[in-house]
Design a protein that fits this description.
This protein is an alpha+beta fold and 282 residues long. It has 3 domains: 84 residues, Rossmann fold, CATH 3.40.50.20; 55 residues, Dna Ligase, domain 1, CATH 3.30.1490; 95 residues, D-amino Acid Aminotransferase, Chain A, domain 1, CATH 3.30.470.20. The strands form 4 sheets. It has a 5-stranded antiparallel β-sheet. The longest helix has 13 residues. The relative contact order is 0.14.
């Protein structure tokens, strides 16, 4: 069995050790996994046939692990008979925060008070009071998330060349604290609590701390609702906490990293992921 591991060039440099680990775990389970750079891939239609070229050469694989936010790529690979992890539905729905909120709210799972705007559209009046959080709809890792405290900061944000974005109320939410739940398929692998005393964003990459977290039965039921509704490969389901300590959905990381989990436990998440891929392919 042979598969592709697809990254952008910049992300492949940043994640070299993770990529090497991924390829090594695949090899241990008799799978050939080849790194492809998104910049080298051309997809499209040629003579009424869908094609994928890498550096001008037509190639094929049994499956692809897409580690970049590119729903169109996922969709075309699937239509060409290549099994994709995560699939196009996951990529389309959860790599855009507004689509993700709409999907999760349909499952009767609490989401924050949020307002959605297409890029460049400036609302004639703000739908919520200061302070509020502004988020780029396709940002990740806590980047492009800003707390707006006053009109002047809002004016500055407006000038920053906005993509699709959300405005979100921080009311009734514990700032600087969130929970990442790692899932593979229908299985919860682990949960990591992230805290940051110096920033309203809890991301470990922004200076936060992390610890393993034991989920209670109510939290497991909430997560299970999401898992039952979607066919995940490997994903990170992120929650914030209300002031009462209840989970409130934040986002789903499609190309989730597992650095904190590896630091905090001896869980070999890529060994489990490769095993899951093998089972799905048989």
């Amino acid at each position: 069995m042979n598969g592709w591991l697809i990254y952008t060039e910049a992300d492949s440099t940043r994640n070299k050790s993770y990529i090497d680990w991924f390829i090594d775990e695949a090899k241990k389970q008799s799978i050939t996994l080849t790194l492809l750079l998104r910049e080298d891939i051309s997809i499209g239609i040629q003579r009424d046939k869908q094609i994928i070229h890498v550096k001008g050469k037509e190639i094929h694989a049994d499956f692809a692990v897409v580690r970049t936010m590119d729903p169109l790529l996922n969709k075309q690979l699937e239509q060409m008979g290549i099994t994709v992890f995560n699939n196009a539905v996951i990529s389309e729905t959860f790599n855009h925060k507004a689509h993700g909120y709409l999907a999760i709210q349909q499952l009767d799972i609490p989401v924050p008070e949020s307002y959605f705007f297409p890029g460049k559209l400036i609302p004639s009046s703000l739908p919520l009071n200061f302070p509020f959080v502004a988020k780029t709809a396709n940002g990740k890792g806590g980047n492009q998330v800003t707390m707006i405290y006053n009109q002047q900061e809002w004016e500055e944000y407006r000038k920053s060349g906005m993509e699709d974005y959300l405005l979100q109320s921080p009311k009734n939410i514990q700032l600087g604290k969130d929970l990442r739940v790692f899932v593979i398929g229908k299985k919860i692998i682990a949960a990591v609590l992230r805290s940051n005393a110096n920033d309203f964003r809890a991301n470990y990459s922004l200076g936060g701390t992390a610890s393993l977290y034991r989920l209670n039965k109510t939290e497991i039921r909430t997560i299970q609702k999401i898992i039952d509704a979607y066919d995940f490969g490997l994903a990170g389901i992120d929650f914030m906490f209300t002031e009462d300590g209840e989970l409130i959905f934040n986002e789903i990381e499609d190309a989730v990293g597992s650095r904190t989990l590896s630091m905090l436990s001896d869980t070999n998440i890529l060994e489990e992921y490769i095993r899951f891929i093998k089972e799905k392919m048989h």
